[in-house]
Amino acid sequence: MKAQFRKLAGEVRQSLRSGQLKAGDVLPSTRQLAAQWGVHRHTVMAAYEELVAEGWLESHPGQGYRVATDWVEAQAPAAHEEQFGWDFQEDLPAMAEIARPQARYRFPSGQPDLRIFPHEEYYGQVRQALRRCAADDLLGYSNPAGRPYFCEQLGHYLRRARGLKFSPEELVVTHGCQEAIYLVARCWLSPGAVVAVEEQGFAKTWEAFRCCGAELAPVQIDEQGIVPESLEQVFSSRKVRLLYLTPLHQYPTTVTLTPTRRQQVLQLAQQYQVPILEDDYDFEFHYQGTTQAPLKMQDTHGLVAYCSTFSKVLHPSARLGFVIAPAPLAQRVARLKTVVSRQNDNLAQEALAGWMAEGGFERHLRRMRRHYEARRRAMSQALAEWDPQPPIHLPQGGMCFWLDTGVDSQKLSELVRKDGVEVQPGAAYRLDGQPSQHLRLGFAHPTIQEIQEGLALLGRARATLL
Ligand SMILES: Cc1ncc(COP(=O)(O)O)c(C=O)c1O
């Protein structure tokens, strides 16, 4: 009855808005409408009474219900009125498409497997944080740059795991890397500024730069990462204001920038006085060889702003990330954050800080790394069974394969969708938007069985396109 009377009231409201019913009109009797809708009279009465309470209708004892005169006249837009034309400043990006959770075999790009996230253990930390902190401290406003306890634990962790040292005024906690990138961009770029980016990359960061009015200048990449000759060509031909880079696991190709090239990039940045925004989004997931230390560690000239995230190692909805930048930039980022999002959630910061202090976070990381490493191997084996076998580049780290399928990857992704397989075609990662034969195949999210079954279907679909 509840849902029915709401539905009915909605229908009457719609007739009022559209002008079908006018001020003073008598509404059908409750008996008539009940017969028309096949509902009980009480349902109609409940709907009418709700509309009376809202001021749409008037009830006249013995005469039924009428459309209220004053209210409707005041609310209904005159037919001849012109709509105000909103004249926006910039083209905003389209809404991100959220992956279809109903697909049976999903290989999302860089998404952790949240099905094996240790909920109980983590929520134990949430409960402890609630007990540990006074309510008006935990639930209130706090330092926009980050909770002191979280900043302290983060500092210990980053020093231990990544060798990063920084002072408190160089750190700002953000809502993931995305907010960090947007805030840095907004502080540093004026409309028309040129940002050098890898020619294939993460479109959401390009959108953050574009929202600040920046123009993007593509720099070539190859199997060793960004190409220094191409970077120099871009730096020498235009006034570049910022270089955005994913040196550890180039996004989307996953390759690691070689030590020699790191030196060259830093030298060029210094020579042309171009700051670097280093995006180190999945540092923890490296399986082969030693992990290259962040570029920020080699930065002796204060040119590098470093951002990272807990979206991959914890979960994306925690919206926890951070930027470490020279203090003048970090302080501006913190000030800007106060007007963009005010601060991060205190509870999320406290819970993670507690988990870090107690060692649980790093145990979780080790577990996830073992899972992902096994899945990486499984994906490599499943691809080796394709006929004919594609060239397989085994990623040293990260959460994805960057696979040259040898066919149009857009067509392939559409073809396998009917088999319940969801994959990301490479064109979405290209700044020029050109068609691509590559797929970015995430191995962190699917189980080994899903990898084997899903890739068998994908391999068969590919064979039909060759
Ligand atoms: C390269 C790269 N940078 C930044 C982000 C943003 O991550 P978040 O805002 O969730 O921290 C992502 C997310 O997938 C990414 O892949």
What do you see in this structure?
With 466 residues, the protein is α/β, with parallel strands linked by helices. It folds into 3 domains: 2-75, Orthogonal Bundle (Arc Repressor Mutant, subunit A), CATH 1.10.10; 106-111 and 362-465, Aspartate Aminotransferase, domain 1 (Alpha-Beta Complex), CATH 3.90.1150; 117-358, Aspartate Aminotransferase, domain 2, CATH 3.40.640.10. It is 44% helix and 13% strand. It has 16 helices and 16 strands. A 7-stranded mixed β-sheet has the order 4-12-11-10-9-5-6, with helices on both faces. The protein has a 3-stranded antiparallel β-sheet with strand order 13-16-15, with helices on one face. It has a two-stranded antiparallel sheet with strand order 1-2. Helix 14 (360-384) runs parallel beside helix 16. The protein is globular, with a radius of gyration of 28 Å. The mean pLDDT is 93. Bound molecules: pyridoxal-5'-phosphate. Residues 110, 176-178, 202, 205, 246, 251, 279, 281, 309, 311, 316, 321 line the site of pyridoxal-5'-phosphate.
Give a quick precis of the structure.
With 466 residues, the chain is an alpha/beta fold. It is 44% helix and 13% strand.
Please describe the structure with a list of short key phrases separated by commas or semicolons:
alpha/beta, Arc Repressor Mutant, subunit A, Aspartate Aminotransferase, domain 1, Aspartate Aminotransferase, domain 2, 7-stranded mixed β-sheet, 16 strands, binds pyridoxal-5'-phosphate
Task: List the topology elements.
Layout: H1 2-17, H2 30-37, H3 41-54, E1 57-60, E2 64-67, H4 69-75, E3 105-106, H5 119-132, H6 135-138, H7 148-162, E4 171-174, H8 176-188, E5 194-198, H9 203-211, E6 215-219, E7 221-222, E8 225-226, H10 228-237, E9 240-245, H11 259-272, E10 276-279, E11 304-309, E12 321-324, H12 327-340, H13 346-358, H14 360-384, E13 400-404, H15 409-417, E14 421-422, E15 424-425, E16 438-442, H16 448-465
Parallel strand pairs: 3-14, 5-6, 5-9, 9-10, 10-11
Antiparallel strand pairs: 1-2, 4-12, 7-8, 11-12, 13-16, 15-16
Helix pairs in contact: 1-3, 2-3, 5-13, 7-13, 8-9, 8-12, 10-11, 14-16, 15-16
The chain binds pyridoxal-5'-phosphate.
